[in-house]
Specification:
With 194 residues, the chain is an alpha+beta fold. 38% of the residues lie in helices and 23% in strands. A hairpin with a 4-residue loop joins strand 3 and strand 4. The longest helix has 48 residues.
């Protein structure tokens, strides 16, 4: 008994082709549209997830600095600068520390090219941590973490001037911080401690 094989007709072969150019174009357009919509949302989500770690490292620096300050000295922070934070940040996986020609740069990761700097204020009676180019996705979470260790907090954006959101006469309110933050990597936070 012979086994016969099925041989398709010429007309059936004509329908066994791949995807048409129109079908491939439509699928490509849909994928591009999803990527355009999804990538900014993913970026904001990544920034939000970094806030607790960045805030924890900054709070740790503030606490170490205030504990190690000499008691009874009117100017315990007179010599403080960004290099003090850099020593702590070099051991951290949170911050990116680089030095170029004597210029020290600490990137915080909460916005594109956002930097952290430390300086003495009030002739060394206290000190300030300044974070530039902070994304709106970090507002108000960053301020909420830092308000526990900072005496005053100011927020400024490209569209609004500097506003004190915590201080001797200003009670901290997370909604107030959120309303002061501008959209994008345009916010500057200043935390005074000591």
């Amino acid at each position: 008994m012979a086994v016969s094989q099925y041989v398709p007709f010429k007309d059936e072969l004509r329908f066994q082709k791949g995807f048409s150019l129109v079908e491939v174009s439509i699928v490509t357009a849909i994928v591009l549209l999803l990527a355009i919509i999804g990538i900014p949302a993913i970026g904001g989500y990544l920034v939000e997830n970094k806030v607790p770690k960045v805030g924890e490292e900054l709070a740790r620096f503030v606490l170490q600095t205030t504990i190690n300050a000499s008691n009874g000295d009117a100017e315990p922070y007179a010599g403080i600068d960004t290099a003090h934070l850099a020593r702590l940040a070099r051991d951290s996986s949170i911050f990116s520390v680089s030095e170029n020609g004597g210029n020290l740069t600490i990137l915080h990761g909460l916005g594109t090219d956002g930097q952290v700097s430390v300086e003495a204020v009030d002739s060394g009676a206290s000190f300030a941590l300044t974070l530039s180019k902070v994304s709106h996705a970090a507002c108000p979470s960053l301020a909420s973490v830092m308000q526990r260790v900072a005496h005053t907090i100011t927020v400024a954006s490209d569209t609004q001037g500097a506003t004190e959101v915590k201080g001797p006469s200003t009670t901290y309110n997370a909604l107030n911080v959120e309303s002061r933050c501008g959209k994008g990597d345009v916010n500057t936070f200043v935390f005074h401690a000591g």
